[in-house]
Write a structure and sequence with these properties.
The chain is mainly alpha-helical. The chain has nine helices and no strands. It has one domain. It is globular and about 60 Å long. It starts with a helix and ends in a 7-residue tail after the last helix. About 45% of the residues are buried.
C-alpha cells in the first residue's frame, strides 16, 4: 500500500508541473508540485525500508522490487534539485521515468527474490548506496540534458513561448548536468571498486562475464562517453546534453533487457 501511495503522490506532483508548463510561468503551483514530490519520495523510501525490514533483503532481487528501487533513484534525483529554485523544473523530465518504472513495479508485484544472495552485510549496502548515487547523477544529467536540447531548439527556431519561459537557461542546465554527472561518475567508480574488492576476496575473480558486472562497466563507460562528448570544438555543451540523454537510455534499456531476459537470476543494481 505504501508503494501505491508513493505512486499516487508522484502523479500528484506531475500534474502541477504540467500545469506550470502550460501556463509558461511559475506561481504557487510550484510549491504544490515540490510538496507532492517530497512526500512521494519520502513514502517511497518508507516502502523500500519496510520491504527490507519485512523480507530481510534489499529490494533488488525480484524484478518488481528492482524496478521500484530504480524508480527511487529518479526520486532521489528530484529531491536533490528541488531546493535549487528554477532548476527544480527538471522534475518534468524525470517524473515520467519515475512513474513508468514505479507503475511497472506495481503491476509486476514488489516481491522478494527466491534466491539467496551471498554478498550481504555492510559491504553490500555500501556498494548499492554508491551505485544509487551514481545512477542518480546520471538521471540528473539526463533530465538537464533533455531540457537543454528542448531549450536549444526553442532558441534556434526563435520560438520564445511558454516552453522557453518555463525551461531554465542553457547555462544553468549545463552546470547542473555537469555537476550531477561528475558526482555520479565518482560514486559509480567507488561502487565498482567495492563490488570488485568483495568479489576478488571471496571468489578470487572479477567475474567480468557476469551480466550485472557487464552492465555496471557499461554504465561506467557511458559516463566516459558523455565526458568525451564535451571535448573538442563547436557545440560541446550541446553534444554533452545529447550524449547524456542517449547514454541514460542505453543504461536503463540495457538494465531492463538484462532483468527481463535473465529471469530470476538475481541481478541487482
Amino acid at each position: 500500500m505504501i508503494h501505491l501511495a508513493a505512486f499516487v503522490f508522484y502523479i500528484g506532483a506531475f500534474v502541477p508541473w504540467v500545469y506550470l508548463l502550460l501556463r509558461g510561468s511559475l506561481g504557487h503551483a510550484v510549491f504544490v508540485a515540490s510538496g507532492f514530490t517530497a512526500v512521494a519520495v519520502a513514502l517511497h523510501a518508507m516502502a523500500l525500508v519496510d520491504f527490507w525490514v519485512t523480507y530481510g533483503e534489499l529490494p533488488l532481487g525480484g524484478l518488481g522490487a528492482a524496478l521500484s528501487s530504480l524508480a527511487f533513484v529518479g526520486g532521489l534525483a528530484l529531491v536533490a534539485v528541488l531546493p535549487l529554485k528554477e532548476v527544480a523544473r527538471i522534475a518534468l523530465g524525470l517524473l515520467p521515468f519515475v512513474l513508468l518504472l514505479q507503475g511497472a513495479a506495481l503491476v509486476l508485484g514488489i516481491e522478494p527474490s527466491p534466491l539467496d544472495f551471498d554478498f550481504r552485510g555492510a559491504g553490500f549496502v555500501l556498494h548499492v548506496a554508491l551505485a544509487f548515487f551514481g545512477l542518480q547523477g546520471l538521471a540528473i544529467g539526463f533530465a538537464a540534458g533533455l531540457l537543454y536540447l528542448l531549450q536549444y531548439h526553442e532558441l534556434k527556431v526563435k520560438r520564445l513561448g511558454r516552453l522557453f519561459r518555463f525551461i531554465p537557461a542553457l547555462a544553468t542546465l549545463e552546470k547542473v548536468g555537469r555537476i550531477g554527472l561528475s558526482v555520479g561518475f565518482v560514486a559509480l567508480s567507488l561502487a565498482l571498486g567495492v563490488g570488485w574488492a568483495w568479489t576478488v576476496q571471496n571468489r578470487g575473480s572479477l567475474e567480468i562475464d557476469d551480466p550485472k558486472v557487464i552492465w555496471a562497466v557499461l554504465s561506467w563507460v557511458v559516463f566516459l562517453g558523455i565526458f568525451a562528448a564535451r571535448r573538442g570544438r563547436g557545440r560541446n555543451e550541446y553534444r554533452s546534453a545529447l550524449a547524456a540523454v542517449i547514454g541514460f537510455g542505453i543504461v536503463i534499456g540495457t538494465y531492463l533487457a538484462l532483468r527481463i531476459t535473465a529471469g530470476g537470476t538475481g541481478l541487482f543494481l
